[in-house]
Write a structure and sequence with these properties.
- Belongs to the binding-protein-dependent transport system permease family.
- Keywords: Cell membrane, Membrane, Transmembrane, Transmembrane helix, Transport.
- Pfam families: BPD_transp_1 (PF00528).
- InterPro entries: MetI-like (IPR000515), MetI-like_sf (IPR035906).
- With 255 residues, the protein is mostly helical.
- It has one domain: MetI-like fold (Orthogonal Bundle).
- 82% of the residues lie in helices and 0% in strands.
- The protein is elongated, with a radius of gyration of 22 Å.
């Protein structure tokens, strides 16, 4: 539990400095409300059904985007990693598409599929594909060629080699890509909700709170919820990874 208490101490210290800076008048409270005000507003928001619906809408879009990204990126990575010729042939288009910021595609996505939940899911899928895809391909480069040659010498088919040799070796790398994509997908979902003005979601709540009277306490409360969701997603995936791949962790530590 030591890391937990250290993280908690750091968080409390950050909030204490924030509170002191605002109370000392170094920053105007109307622009940056102190943590006590933000947390009070957050507690009030948790009791609102509409805000809970916004949270559920964002998390549901995140879950769908992650499912689609995994379903597309893992098979594609296995295919490109196992067939060098195909990997070389598609390298140009992959390297062209990968650096394009997903946020820059918002106008195009809205024109093509509209501004509903499909827009944020599509953009989140696009952004989440690349870490999973590249980690899967990278995993193939790290496989000991002797393992593949031994399996082939025993008459094992290509499909079975992928399933019994390559995939178990690549699994920790793939899961690392999934953990990285988890944060990226949440960022894209909330950003698209904020920029494109979705009907539901944390980003839409922040957008509405920042307009009109400009309730910065509500804006920061929504931001805290988004950050907390990202932390819990990453922490949950990290715990699952440690449980699933203990053998890989033990091997790394022994090395």
């Amino acid at each position: 539990m030591r890391p937990f208490y250290r993280n908690l101490a750091g968080l409390i210290g950050f909030f204490a400095i924030w509170e002191a800076v605002v109370r000392a008048g170094l920053v105007r409270e109307v622009f940056l409300p102190p943590p006590t005000v933000v947390l009070t507003s957050l507690v009030e928001l948790i009791g609102r059904e509409s805000f809970l619906r916004d949270i559920i809408a964002s998390l549901l879009a995140w879950a769908i985007a992650m499912f689609v990204a995994i379903a597309v990126a893992v098979p594609a990575g296995l295919l490109l990693g196992s067939i060098p010729g195909l990997r070389v042939a598609t390298r140009a288009i992959v390297e062209f598409l990968r650096p394009i910021p997903s946020v820059a595609l918002i106008p195009l996505v809205i024109l093509v599929i509209g501004g509903g939940p499909e827009a944020k899911i599509t953009l989140a899928v696009y952004a989440s594909l690349w870490p999973i895809l590249y980690n899967t391909i990278y995993a193939f480069d790290e496989i000991d060629p002797l393992l593949i040659d031994t399996a082939r010498s025993c008459g094992t088919s290509r499909v079975r080699i992928l399933r019994t040799v390559a995939l178990p070796h690549a699994a920790p790398f793939i899961f690392t890509g999934i953990r990285m994509s988890g944060a990226i997908a949440l960022i894209l979902v909330v950003s698209t909700e904020f920029i494109a003005g979705a009907h539901r979601g944390i980003g839409n709540f922040i957008l509405e709170a920042s307009g009109g009277a400009g309730r910065m306490d509500l804006v920061l409360a929504g931001t805290v919820v988004a950050g907390l969701a990202g932390y819990l997603i990453n922490e949950g995936l990290e715990r699952v990874g440690r449980r699933l791949f203990r053998w890989n962790t033990a091997e790394t530590e022994a090395t």
